[in-house]
Amino acid sequence: MARNDTLIDRPASKRVGALRGLMPFLRPYRTMSALAGLALVVTAGMSLVLPLAVRRVVDGFNKDVALLDQYFGAALVIAALLALGTGVRYYFVTRLGERVVADIRRALFDRVMGMSPAFYERLLTGEVLSRITTDTTLILSLIGSSVSVALRNVLMLVGGLALLMLTSAKLTGLVLLIVPAIVLPIVFLGRRLRVLSRENQDWIAASSGSASEALSAVQTVQAFTHEGQTRAAFAEVTEKAYASAQTRVKVRSLMTVIVIFLTFTGIVGVLWIGARDVRAGAMSPGELVQFVIYAVMVAGAVGALSEIWGEVQRAAGATERLVEMLGAEDSVNDPASPRALPRPVRGEIVFDDVTFRYPARPEVSALRGVSLVVRPGETVALVGPSGAGKTTILQLLMRFYDPQSGVVRFDGIDLREMERADFRRAVALVPQDPVIFAASARENIRFGRPDATDAEVEAAAKAAAAHDFLSALPQGYDTWLGERGVMLSGGQKQRVAIARAILRDAKVLLLDEATSALDAESERAVQAAVESLSEGRTTLVVAHRLATVKRADRIVVFDHGQIVATGTHEALVAEGGLYARLARLQFTDGQV
User: Fold this and answer.
1) Burial category of 225 from C-beta neighbours within 10 Å (exposed 0-12, middle 13-18, buried 19 and up)
2) DSSP 29
3) To the nearest whole percent, how much of the chain has pLDDT over 70?
4) What count of other Cβ atoms lies within 10 Å of the Cβ of residue 34?
5) DSSP letters along 272-290, please?
6) Exposed end of the chain (fewer CB within 10 Å): N or C?
7) Is the dihedral of CA 35, 39, 45, 46 positive or negative?
8) How far, CA to CA in Å, does 397 sit from each of 196, 362, 371, 407, 410?
9) DSSP per residue over 85-143, as a string?
10) d(CA 163, CA 297)
11) Where are the domains of the chain?
């Protein structure tokens, strides 16, 4: 299984300005943000006031004892306010982060659920899941922690520098001489860190996509003894993700070492000069202690900001990818002013000179100039060799794709002029590869009509010849069927999918090889149910097994994306050609 490079081979990450993409999610929670900001200002202010009390204590240690007690009392009050403000800040900031990330995850899921199949031709579902989980976790860390800590340290840095200047302009000037030496590595290495962070997250997404693909096909992997190669492929992607992370960690570690070393080297030098000023009587011991505390605060703030900068870079890359996905262009969209499907639904289907090429294979025409009219209530079978375009007809009718030219109409209206959900409510689909959800048998069938009663669910199962085996399960209809229906055979899955379509009770029924995995006895039972269900409904049946379509009102024969013949079974056999050849391959002379 080859790695999907769609997300890896992209331009380097943009600047931290990409974080502006979070603003639409933050705006609804202005009050919560304001309260968190207020608590942040209070805690930073209390931290900056505390050294003033320490200075008073140091300078007045051998003076008035009562005054000393007051200073210690004031320090306790400041500490209490600091603790309260920190707790309030943590509560609002963490709550805000969790709320915003939950909203982002919902928005992402809502977006990808509405994307057409063309979107997933370019992207593994595992990579989409990585965006919803890994990338949003980085944003949670940013909003719930990093932003708060960063703003607090910015306040400490600015306030600390101002108070340093008030304490000793001379020593502060010396401190400021060191700042450019500290800022330069942050800027230079920060750019490199941003690119590495984006690359690392892309490799993590690729790893997730590889694992998801392998696990969803684990039986096939094991059946072909491909475990070794699959493990090796996953290990390769994982090691590349690790190597990318290792490079990022090295750069960040180097930046941290440089910043902290330069910061504290400067502080030691300034303290040395300050100690000499105390000895010379140019400043009091309390002022030096106050200056030292503020200098440590400023140095700590600079060091913390250099640490947080890496997290901000990673979150910026994650935000950029999430915004890209939220704003991803889709080839199939609902119109701004949709037309409503007329009620009651008649079920007329028209393909007017339709030509279509799948986005992943733009050089090959799946359909070429196809024109087809299916009258309301008519049962039409689509037959032909594999790849002839039969299933593509159903894909276009469900508007999973739009044709490059021509028009598909439902009850006289172009599908592109209606909301997809509007006309899809009038359609029931049984796909070639039936999907069984990790839920009970009853919930799987009720997926076709969520408001159906238990009796209606069981009636649909009986009509699809599924009642007997479902009743025999350990908890009957309430038995959990496992992920992708692992507890059922292929034929049983198809019968559950058919029951789901029967329960939907739609005006148009689409069957794509619906009985291909059934044994002869079940196929006869299901065929009878489908024939009964088709009465009064427009039915399109895609089939390779011609025995299942002999009674269709009309059979349309496809070959190389074109209609090559149309008629009843008897007429097409008498006509000769492709259908007669297919019939001879499947039937004995007597059966034909």
Assistant:
1) exposed
2) G
3) 85
4) 11
5) HHHHHHHHTTSS-HHHHHH
6) C
7) positive
8) 45, 20, 13, 10, 8
9) HHHHHHHHHHHHHHHHHHHHHHHHHHHHHTS-HHHHHSS-HHHHHHIIIIIHHHHHHII
10) 11
11) 18-326, 341-426+542-592
Q: Shortest CA distance to 90 belongs to which of 139, 40, 45, 42?
A: 40
Q: What is the pLDDT of residue 8?
A: 38
The per-residue pLDDT for 6 is 41
Mean pLDDT of the chain: 79
In 3D space, the residue among 123, 101, 98 whose CA is nearest the CA of residue 112 turns out to be: 123
CA distance 300 to 263: 9
One-character DSSP codes across 353-394: EEEE--TT-TTS-SEEEEEEEE-TT-EEEEE-STTSSHHHHH
Q: Output the CA–CA distances (angstroms, integers) from residue 167 to 171, 276, 289, 299, 302, in the order listed.
A: 9, 16, 10, 16, 20
CA 28 – CA 63 distance, rounded (Å) = 55
Say whether pTM exceeds 0.90: no
The pLDDT tens digits for 308-331 are: 776 777 777 777 778 877 777 777
- Greatest Cα pair distance, the chain, in angstroms, is 121
Each residue of 536-570: pLDDT tens digit?
789 898 887 777 777 788 989 888 889 888 888 88
Which pLDDT band holds residue 9 (cuts at 50, 70, 90)?
A: very low
- In angstroms, what CA-CA distances link 513 with 208, 492, 518, 541? 32, 14, 10, 7
Strand partners, 557: 383, 565
Cα(543)–Cα(9) distance, integer angstroms:
41
Residue 14: pLDDT over 60: no
Range 289-314 average pLDDT:
75
How many residues can be counted in the chain? 592
Cis peptide before 359 (omega within 30 of 0): no
C-beta of residue 342 within 8 angstroms of C-beta of residue 128: no
In angstroms, the CA 525 to CA 454 distance is 22
Q: Do domains 18-326 and 341-426+542-592 have the same CATH topology?
A: no
Closest among 205, 1, 4, 2 to 123, alpha carbons compared: 4
**Distance in angstroms (rounded) separating the CA atoms of residues 142 and 151:** 12
For domain 18-326, give the fold. ABC transporter transmembrane region fold (1.20.1560)
- What fold, for 341-426+542-592? Rossmann fold (3.40.50)
Are 441 and 481 contacting, i.e. CB atoms less than 8 angstroms apart?
yes
pLDDT of residue 4: 42
- Contact in structure between 126 and 214 (CB atoms under 8 Å): no
Q: Which of 105, 15, 137 is nearest to 325 (CA)?
A: 105
The tens digit of pLDDT for each residue in 323-380 reads 877 777 777 888 888 899 888 888 899 999 999 998 878 888 889 999 999 999 888 9
Alpha carbon 150 to its chain's center: 28
